[in-house]
Amino acid sequence: MEFGVDVIVLLMGVAFIAGVIDAIAGGGGLLTIPALMAVGVPPVQAIATNKLQSSFGTASAVVAFARKGRIDFRRFARPAIGAFVGSVVGAWTLQRIDPAFLAGLIPVLLVLMVIYFTVAPKASEEDRHSRFGTGALVGIATAIGFYDGFFGPGTGSFLTTALVALFGMGLVSATAHTKFLNLASNIAALITLVIGGYVLWAIGLLMAVASIAGGQVGAHLALRVGGRVIRPLLVVMALALTVKLLADPGNSLTAWVMGAAA
């Protein structure tokens, strides 16, 4: 696909904002996937291209946390493998779904993610006793990995919430290990979708540059404003982009609703 300069600038701008949001609250894919679809990118290609650009930001965060000694690679090796395998299966499933059905499903998933970000409780900063063992951690990482390969937005928040609520980790430690698990699932989905030929490399790499820059800005903002300002912004923008997708008469969900109302 070919894009004009105005569309490229728009997508890079969205990727920059998504990078800022990802660094502070997670969920940047709530913006980039519908933005790609809004400029005419088919659903599977939009998810695949988003995986390319988001993988760079996640890898950058993993390197930063690893340098500070915040990631226990030995303990999380098996969960990372689980996330990788689950994501491969999710991405494989994604490629076998009718694109028209997927175009209608994505706005529904976006609304569900918005609800989650609205009602999700704040995580604790302190480490606590884990309620479950390594087997449960591997199982949960695999299940969330499947979701990441199939769709993606909100994966980081799901993982962080699980690590805090079920495995007693403090917020900083949970965030660091979430990035590691998320990197495994991102790479798995990206490889699977590259093999399928769905990645738009040029726009994906340009968005990756913008996403990395946004991540750096977000890291600094996180120390000042945190998620209390960014999360409401994320919800508003995601809802606006959802409305944009549903405004297209060609969207299968819109067509179904219009038909049912007729």
Automatic annotation (TrEMBL):
Compartment(s) where it occurs, according to its Swiss-Prot or TrEMBL record: Cell membrane
Pfam families (alphabetical): TauE (PF01925)
Annotated membrane topology: Multi-pass membrane protein
UniProt keyword Cell wall biogenesis/degradation, yes or no: no
Keyword Transport: yes
Alphabetized UniProt keyword annotations: Cell membrane, Membrane, Transmembrane, Transmembrane helix, Transport
Chief localization: membrane
Highest rank taxon of the organism: Bacteria
Transmembrane segments: 7-25, 76-94, 100-120, 132-150, 156-175, 187-209, 229-247
Family from the record: Belongs to the 4-toluene sulfonate uptake permease (TSUP) (TC 2.A.102) family.
Name of the protein this chain belongs to: Probable membrane transporter protein
